[in-house]
Amino acid sequence: MSIGKFEILCKDAKSNARKGLLTTGHGDIRTPVFMPVGTRGSVKGLTPEMVKDIGSQIILANTYHMYLRPGIDVVEQLGGLHKLMAWDAPILTDSGGYQVFSLSTLNRIGDDGVEFASHIDGQRIYLDPAIATDAQNRLGADIIMAFDECAPYPCERERLVSATERSIRWAKICKDSHKNDLQLLFAIVQGGIDLELRSYCADKLVEIGFPGYAMGGLSVGEGFDNMIRTTAHTVRHLPEDKPRYLMGVGMPADLIAGVREGIDMFDCVLPTRNGRNASAFTEEGPIKLRNSVYTTDIRPLEEGCGCYCCRNFSRGTLRHFFNVGEMLGPTLVSIHNITFLQRIMDKIHKNIDNNTFSEWSEEKLKKYAAC
Ligand SMILES: CNc1nc2cc3c(cc2[nH]1)N=C(N)NC3
Q1: What are the C-alpha distances in Å from 73 to residues 61, 90, 134, 135?
Q2: Pairing verdict, β 143-145 and 184-189
Q3: pLDDT tens, 290-310?
Q4: 94 catalytic, yes or no?
Q5: How far away, in angstroms, is 117 Cα from ligand 1 center?
């Protein structure tokens, strides 16, 4: 089994879209792929069996959160992350770089690492590239991420440059610290929407050499056009034969547009976060189920969807569940929303196979933009 092998199976003639097969320690991943997020070891509100039934191939967990609770030692004593999550397929762990800068109270950012106060109990913690890589090696995920510094958006160019430079230096330390050949260490390209900085960062990371490359720092309020323009530009600086991962993305239109620019992997909390907040993806745009207009609506969320939620529950029932605070409401709408994104990925695969992706994606993007 050649872990890290990425085979391009089919390429769209009129865009950068492609289908691939990525070999990992827990099986092959057919790309493009959407990865549901299980930040603290659970895809919120869903059993692993539900996630598997939807057709998800790989799920995420987060090193920052697992480091704080229950702690890496405890995860190891519980049999590792796959055992803890009851998931025998591929897992990707984010390094915690984003969460340290977005969740915690930063005390010190140095070239060595970061000192911060835990967002849980204020405990002072120190993380650096080597510690974050060792933690991911011990968690045992199949794909692990470099420890990076995520500059806020927007921010002064000087801050963006220093965060990008530091992320490059830290990526090299992560690669030198990474000991487990069963795990793939992906680099993360930073640089905001500054195309020159993105090129510089991508070129430097490719020089160091990684089995896959992510793009971080997008889908943070820059807007769809900036995100796609930056993605398209950066992809041109990444190797054709390595997987490309657009972190934290995204909504239905983002997935289609990202694939068109040559992205292979996506993750996003929105299907479950929106699901918990009674917001459901539909082909006609999101619907807010707490709205009284759905009180006696006997239709499923989406005619023809086929997910467990749409096969068994009406919009009226779902509105009732949210209205009275039944736990089943968030679970059902999360199942539907992940299924909705999975179905988009399935349609992407089919259209790339049939060489109809460009026309299909054009029509879909127009439709979703109008929602
Ligand atoms: C908008 N969501 C999102 N953007 C991200 C950006 C990054 C990330 C996770 C994200 N999630 N993880 C990193 N280690 N770095 C960059």
Answers
A1: 16, 21, 12, 9
A2: parallel
A3: 999 999 999 999 999 999 999
A4: yes
A5: 20
User: What tokens were used for 57?
Assistant: 């191939």
Phi, psi of 128 (to 5 degrees): -145, 175
pLDDT in tens, 45-82: 999 999 999 999 999 999 999 999 999 999 999 999 99
Percent of the chain with pLDDT over 90: 95
Sorted by sequence, the CB contacts under 8 Å of residue 227 that are 6+ apart come out as 193, 218, 219, 249, 254
Terminal Cα distance for the chain, rounded: 45
The DSSP secondary-structure symbol of 294 reads G
- Report the SS3 class of residue 236: coil
**What are the backbone angles phi and psi of residue 5, rounded to the nearest 5°?**
-65, 130
Among the atoms of ligand 1, which is closest to the Cα of residue 190? 16
Q: Residue 12 catalytic?
A: no
Report the residue count for the chain. Answer: 371
Helix (H) or strand (E) holding 39: none
Ligand 1 contact, 248 CB (< 6 A): yes
pLDDT of residue 370: 83
- For 240-291, the pLDDT digits (tens) are 999 999 999 999 999 999 999 999 999 999 999 999 999 999 999 999 999 9
Find tokens 């299909």 and name the residue.
Answer: 360
Q: Which of 149, 247, 263 to mutate to test the pocket of ligand 1 (most atoms within 8 A of CB)?
A: 247
Which helix H or strand E contains 113, and what residues bound it?
Answer: none
- ipTM of predicted complex: 0.98
Atom of ligand 1 nearest to the CA of 217: 6
Query: Within a 10 A sphere around the Cβ of 103, how many other Cβ atoms?
Result: 16
The confidence score (pLDDT) of residue 371 equals 83
